[in-house]
Specification:
1 helix, globular, four-stranded antiparallel beta sheet, single chain, mainly beta, Neuraminidase, disordered N terminus
């Protein structure tokens, strides 16, 4: 019996060596873009590459999961969330690489959401809320210090206007991740908050409803993703004319996340990263080749009964 337990506690775990494509790699997600670089999450690590996808470089190798990268206004720093030290907090790292700098220390989770025009990191947190349904926005200096709360009651994702006078944000959590095509009372919406008089205006929805999220503020336009026409696609909202325009037409897989800077918006769709050119309205997938060790895919022996699924004794 002891021998059987010993045999069943050893599991050979292996995957095919061609499980990934080192020339045109897929499943990179949560992309961000600056004037000359892109950042993304792959294999739970933070990576950067040139704007065309060439020369990808891994910036982090910690066992913790990295997420939500955002470029600073000067494109020299990336703010992101990471599960270091047993908790999810906000960190920054130079685009050229280095040791991540921790900015938040609360025992709850802190999710990086971007930067203010003046260069402070914006993050969402539940540190002062006693419900799982909502979070709030805080800002913290890249040099550290005590975070300050933004004067918005509740918020999940945010994008400041270039002049810092308005914030486009989603007030609540996104339930469409669990229910595709959700049209209930907590549909995700984007509100535009005025810092001067605290007024709020919502990006208009169709009568059938929609889930609107991932606000991106460039110039006089708020770009966002929405499922108002079926599958999630990229849209724009002109804050002057109050008009909404559909920019992409993906019918097979949704646009899962989006970020923007200057004349480009980057988003994830069908396992690839795409860039949308604001000037000519074209969208093109990026070809990014990631060749790395990927420890999770390396054939190895794993000891422990929790890995055993079934067992059979040999004739001998």
């Amino acid at each position: 019996m002891k021998r059987l337990l010993l045999l069943t506690s050893i599991l050979l775990y292996s995957l095919a060596s061609n499980a990934t494509d080192p020339v045109n790699t897929r499943f990179m997600h949560q992309p961000a873009i600056s004037q000359d670089k892109i950042a993304f999450i792959y294999a739970n690590d933070l990576w950067v590459a040139n704007r065309d996808g060439s020369n990808p470089v891994r910036l982090t190798i910690d066992e913790g999961v990295e997420s939500n990268p955002h470029f600073s206004p000067d494109s020299k720093t990336i703010a992101f969330s990471a599960q270091y030290d047993g908790n999810t907090d906000v960190f920054t790292i130079p685009v050229t690489g280095g040791i991540p700098k921790r900015l938040t220390y609360h025992p709850g989770w802190d999710l990086a959401r971007g930067f203010t025009p003046s260069g402070e990191v914006v993050f969402a947190t539940q540190r002062t809320i006693h419900t799982r349904r909502y979070s709030q926005f805080y800002t913290v200096s890249t040099s550290g210090g005590f975070p300050e709360q933004v004067k918005i009651p509740y918020g999940s994702r945010a994008a400041y206007s270039p002049d810092g006078k308005f914030i486009a944000y989603t007030p609540g959590r996104e339930v469409f991740w669990q229910w595709k095509g959700y049209r209930g009372g907590t549909m995700s919406r984007i509100w535009i908050f005025s810092m001067s008089d605290n007024s709020v205006a919502e990006i208009p929805k169709p009568e059938s409803g929609s889930n609107d999220t991932y606000p991106i503020w460039i110039g006089n336009t708020v770009y966002f993703t929405s499922d108002r026409d079926g599958e999630f696609n990229l849209y724009s909202y002109d804050v002057t004319s109050k008009s909404v325009k559909k920019l992409t037409d993906h019918n097979d897989f949704p646009v899962l996340s989006a970020s923007g800077s200057g004349d480009k918006i980057i988003y994830e769709q069908a396992g690839l990263l795409h860039t949308y050119d604001i000037n000519n309205g074209s969208s093109n997938p990026l070809k990014i080749g990631v060749a790395t060790d990927l420890l999770e895919l390396r054939p190895r022996y794993a000891s422990g009964s929790k890995y055993a699924r079934s067992a059979s004794i040999s004739p001998s």
